[in-house]
């Protein structure tokens, strides 16, 4: 009994059964096929069994001319370059039949299992975005980074993700969603692990670049992969629920940063050449979601839609049967048989894909810089200034912080076992002074003169002595590297991580609303409406003159704009055909990462100068995006093409 979908019955969502007289010959007595299921000892055949399933074209041949009249000769001489019209017809027939099969499989345990597995991969992407930002304040001290090097470290991850999105998106349409995702996550895990141990700036930069290339494939593949297991009435809602794992990744990174990085005691060193501080522990912990996703993904099958689009009929059938049987057993109907035996496959031919653009990443990158700038302004407003002071025979053994000393004279003074934080000495003279066990941060001596002074076990390197004169002065046993000390920065670190935690958590309401309404109001209304409201919210940034104000606006913008991202993810999945879906998604996501690179490069230059240009730039991009959204076709209620 072979169900065969006719054109009329396919539209009704049902099928018609045709009976054929089957002659089974077995030259090898007692032979058995590994690909056959459901045979008992007497070789009795029953409904739903898989028996080397005939292709759709062979079924049609039997209908046309009877059991023995398959048009093999015509098929042999058929032109290899099949026309685009024929291919499109095959794709439309597969799309309709595939939707009917997914409805028969139902939505249940299998989809929820895949949901959590792919959620871990999406969570890893969310973590990657935050890693460098959280470790940069510590890494810049540990590696003595200059301002250009710090900027490059912030850019390199987005650049790697941009390359990875395009690379893995294209590869997933060639070798499969599951295999590409496994490879990309493996690369991310390996180089994240290495980056936590390497000491040099160049090797750390290289590892974070390749880590970004690896995780860049997560978003394009995850959404395409999951969508191909969802029927049309579930697709928009459940793809939106999947987006929540990106938020969970941000929360995980913020919580781990707060719990690990400020604890300077969580470190060890081997001599002065190798140091492993707490921020490296954080980098290592951030690789866990990616490793967990790899382990869980090994238990998941490849997308059946990918198999069918690439002519692998039997493999696609087996996966769909697995989905059906898993769901039916979980619902208490283990006796229900997967009734489909023949599924349409698509003839293969190469074709280019035309994709659009989306970018408005820059504003979200600008927020943290504005908050840091406001914090810096507030800190500098408390700076104490001392002029023409004369200090003799005094021992300093306490922390010196946020002070400026100009035209001072220091004679026979001792600076012992202390920390200097944001200290500036200008046009001053130090005569017969003794510096021992000094740890400094943002401390500089400008146009100063040191006479008969001794520096022992300090980190006052030459770059901290700007245009200074050294007369009979000596440096002994200088500290190597840039020493870390979080004892005075714990509250500041806590505030930074807490702000990011709030900003990430703020997208939760937007995620919930978009998931509940995506299939009710449609993708385009969700995208255009959220973009317009986000555009309006940009102008409120003009009033964000305080740290608390900027945090509130960050939360507002994140909560509103997330609905646009969710709608965009769903539309991208549904607009492009299966054989080009991840390629198109990867290209679009690469453009988003390019916008992040441009946002970091351009918007940072306006911090402390003007808010107008970044705000107008972001508002213009959002307005253009909402207008262009109206030009897209609505994909709600359509089968997955």
Automatic annotation (TrEMBL):
Domain Major facilitator superfamily (MFS) profile: 114-636
GO biological processes: chemical synaptic transmission; neurotransmitter transport
Protein name per UniProt: Synaptic vesicle glycoprotein 2A
GO molecular function, a single term: transmembrane transporter activity
Species of origin: Astatotilapia calliptera
Coiled-coil ranges from the UniProt annotation: none
Quaternary structure annotation from Swiss-Prot or TrEMBL: Interacts with SYT1/synaptotagmin-1 in a calcium-dependent manner. Binds the adapter protein complex AP-2.
Entry keyword set: Cell projection, Cytoplasmic vesicle, Glycoprotein, Membrane, Neurotransmitter transport, Phosphoprotein, Synapse, Transmembrane, Transmembrane helix, Transport
Localization: Cytoplasmic vesicle, Secretory vesicle, Synaptic vesicle membrane; Presynapse
Family, similarity comment: Belongs to the major facilitator superfamily.
Function: Plays a role in the control of regulated secretion in neural and endocrine cells, enhancing selectively low-frequency neurotransmission. Positively regulates vesicle fusion by maintaining the readily releasable pool of secretory vesicles.
Record-annotated membrane-spanning stretches: 112-139, 151-169, 181-198, 205-226, 238-261, 281-300, 494-517, 550-572, 584-606, 612-630
Membrane topology: Multi-pass membrane protein
A GO CC term attached to the entry: synaptic vesicle membrane
Superkingdom per UniProt: Eukaryota
Alphabetized Gene3D superfamilies for the sequence: E3 ubiquitin-protein ligase SopA, MFS general substrate transporter like domains
């Amino acid at each position: 009994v072979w169900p065969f979908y006719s054109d009329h019955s396919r539209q009704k969502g049902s099928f018609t059964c045709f009976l054929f007289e089957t002659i089974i010959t077995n030259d090898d007595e007692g032979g058995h096929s590994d690909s056959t299921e459901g045979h008992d000892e007497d070789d009795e055949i029953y409904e739903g069994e898989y028996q080397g399933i005939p292709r759709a074209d062979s079924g049609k041949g039997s209908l046309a001319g009877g059991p023995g009249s398959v048009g093999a000769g015509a098929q042999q001489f058929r032109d290899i370059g099949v026309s685009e019209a024929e291919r499109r017809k095959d794709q439309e027939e597969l799309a309709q039949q595939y939707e009917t099969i997914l409805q028969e499989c139902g939505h249940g345990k299998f989809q929820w299992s895949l949901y959590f597995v792919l959620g871990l991969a999406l969570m890893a992407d969310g973590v990657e975005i935050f890693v460098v930002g959280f470790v940069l304040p510590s890494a810049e001290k540990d590696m003595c980074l200059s301002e250009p090097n710090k900027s490059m470290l912030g850019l390199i991850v987005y650049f790697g993700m941009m390359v990875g999105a395009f690379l893995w998106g294209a590869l997933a349409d060639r070798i499969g969603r599951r295999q590409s995702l496994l490879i990309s996550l493996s690369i991310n895990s390996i180089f994240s692990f290495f980056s936590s141990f390497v000491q040099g700036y160049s090797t750390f930069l290289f590892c974070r670049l390749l880590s970004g290339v690896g995780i860049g494939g997560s978003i394009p593949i995850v959404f395409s992969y999951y969508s191909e297991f969802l029927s049309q009435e579930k697709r928009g809602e459940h793809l939106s629920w999947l987006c929540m794992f990106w938020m969970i990744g941000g929360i995980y990174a913020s919580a781990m940063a707060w719990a690990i990085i400020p604890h300077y005691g969580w470190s060890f060193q081997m001599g002065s050449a190798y140091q492993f501080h707490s921020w490296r522990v954080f980098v290592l912990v951030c690789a866990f979601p990616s490793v967990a996703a790899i382990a869980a993904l090994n238990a998941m099958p490849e997308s059946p839609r990918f198999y069918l689009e690439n002519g692998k009929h039997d493999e696609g059938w087996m996966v769909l049967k697995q989905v059906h049987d898993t769901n039916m057993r979980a619902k208490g109907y283990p006796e229900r048989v997967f009734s489909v035996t023949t599924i349409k496959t698509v003839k293969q031919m190469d074709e280019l894909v035309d994709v659009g653009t989306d970018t408005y990443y820059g504003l979200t990158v600008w927020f943290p810089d504005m908050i840091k700038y406001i914090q810096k302004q507030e800190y500098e407003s408390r700076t104490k200034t001392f002029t023409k002071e004369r200090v003799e025979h005094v021992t300093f053994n306490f922390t010196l912080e946020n002070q400026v000393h100009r035209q001072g004279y220091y004679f026979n003074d001792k600076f012992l076992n202390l920390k200097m934080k944001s200290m500036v000495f200008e046009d001053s003279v130090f005569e017969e002074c003794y510096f021992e066990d000094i740890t400094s941060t943002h401390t500089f001596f400008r146009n100063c003169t040191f006479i008969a002074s001794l520096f022992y076990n300090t980190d006052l390197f030459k770059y901290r002595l700007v245009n200074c004169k050294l007369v009979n002065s000596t440096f002994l046993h200088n500290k190597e590297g840039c020493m870390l000390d979080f004892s005075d920065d714990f509250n500041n670190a806590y505030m930074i991580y807490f702000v990011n935690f709030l900003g990430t958590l703020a997208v939760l309401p937007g995620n919930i609303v978009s998931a509940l309404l995506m299939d009710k109001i449609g993708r385009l209304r969700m995208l255009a409406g959220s973009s317009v409201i986000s555009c309006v919210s940009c102008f409120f940034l003009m009033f964000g003159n305080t740290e608390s104000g900027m945090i509130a606006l960050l939360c507002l913008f994140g909560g509103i704009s997330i609905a646009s991202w969710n709608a965009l993810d769903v539309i991208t999945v549904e607009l492009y055909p299966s054989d080009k879906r991840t390629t198109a998604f990867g290209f679009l996501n690469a453009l988003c990462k390019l916008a992040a690179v441009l946002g970091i490069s351009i918007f940072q230059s306006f911090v402390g100068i003007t808010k107008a240009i970044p705000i107008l730039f972001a508002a213009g991009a959002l307005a253009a995006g909402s207008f262009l959204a109206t030009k897209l076709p609505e994909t709600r209620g359509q089968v997955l093409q």
